[in-house]
Amino acid sequence: MISPETIEDAKNRLIAAYKPVAIYLFGAYGWGHPDDDDDLCILIIIESSNEKVYKRGDKAFNALLSLEIPTSTVVFTQQEFDTFSQDITSLTYEVKTRGKLLYARN
Q1: 6: exposed, middle or buried (C-beta count within 10 Å: 0-12, 13-18, 19+)?
Q2: Cβ(42)–Cβ(57) under 8 Å?
Q3: Contacts of 1 (CB under 8 A, 6+ apart)
Q4: If you compute the radius of gyration of the chain from its CA atoms, what whole number of angstroms results?
Q5: Can you tell me the distance from the alpha carbon of 63 to that of 53, in angstroms, rounded to the nearest whole number?
Q6: Averaged in consecutive runs of 10 residues, what is the pLDDT profile of the chain (106 residues)?
Q7: Tell me, what's the pLDDT at 106?
Q8: What backbone torsions phi and psi does residue 85 show, to the nearest 5 degrees?
Q9: pTM exceeds 0.90 for this model
Q10: Strand ranges in the chain using DSSP code E only, listed in sequence order
Q11: Side-by-side strand order, sheet with 22-26
Q12: C-alpha–C-alpha distance, residues 41 and 34, integer Å
């Protein structure tokens, strides 16, 4: 299992890499009851981006690589997150309503 200290370290690395609006934990670690086979699933919200969606996760990969833990990250702009999270059938809605907010910029 991934320790709370490692999750905190991951959060701090992502804050340094992205300077995000918010970071959510979802999946087994966000919903509860993780086991040894579960990834650390993280959704990062940034203000805006001109990068293609599939390229936005590169910073997260690089920031978390040396932790040597299984991760899955998704990076959305604030506008994308606000739009997608209105669809109750979307994962983004689940993250917003059931996920664990790890970080929110003041």
Answers
A1: middle
A2: no
A3: 34, 35, 36, 38
A4: 13
A5: 18
A6: 96 98 97 93 97 94 97 96 97 96 95
A7: 85
A8: -75, -5
A9: yes
A10: 22-26, 40-46, 71-77, 100-104
A11: 71-77, 40-46, 22-26, 100-104
A12: 11
Tell the burial category of 51 from Cβ atoms under 10 Å away from its Cβ (0-12, 13-18, 19+). middle
Determine the pLDDT at residue 25: 98
pLDDT of residue 80: 96
**Residue 13 token pair:** 């690395």
Please say whether the beta carbons of 23 and 71 come within 8 A: no
Domain positions in the chain are: 4-104
Q: Which fold has domain 4-104?
A: Beta Polymerase; domain 2 (3.30.460)
